[in-house]
Design goal:
Helices cover 66% and strands 2% of the residues. It is mainly alpha-helical.
Length: 202
Amino acid sequence: MALRIKNQWFKEGRPKTPRENASAMAFITWRVTQNMVKQMREAKFDIDVGPQYFAFMREVLVFLCQVVDRMAFERMPGEQRAEFTSALVVRVAEILEESEQEWLGEPPAGQERWRNQFIDQSNELAEAYAEFGHGPEGPDFGFVRYLGSRLESVLPGKDRHWVKDQVMAYEVPEALEMVQRGLDGVLSTEPRPKRRATMSGE
């Protein structure tokens, strides 16, 4: 895989809270999104650092948060899932805001904080993504295609015709595999394998 995902996050001895799990998944989701942007740029899509870069990031992050929420539906009771997903979106918003503050500075006068803009966008698009299905094989065609259509408006004209194909055929399948692997590790209750003792000098 293009990106190694850490899959052991917590010390043994106590249950992990939904908020702790969400914080770990937020970092994984952020890394996976960065990797997708990197690969899109290597594929000659113009995603310039600046407002366009973060617009692209926001769309992918919202999509992946929705996917993780659907994955959590199969793994958590309803109340726990709601706490997990809410904490996930908030933590992703905080990580995103740190980067936006560094590269873009403060939002223009009269606009919400960067984190609040992401949370609002997540809430708005959650209703749209709710129209699509998600099963054992992951999000359905419409789910992924909707992300592609959202990204069309972010990219320059020369890239819009190709972005859906690139995202649906290459980027999303790899991203979903990494996110699923990350969630499996975060939610795992299996004890970590003990490290093999080594003699001095090995």
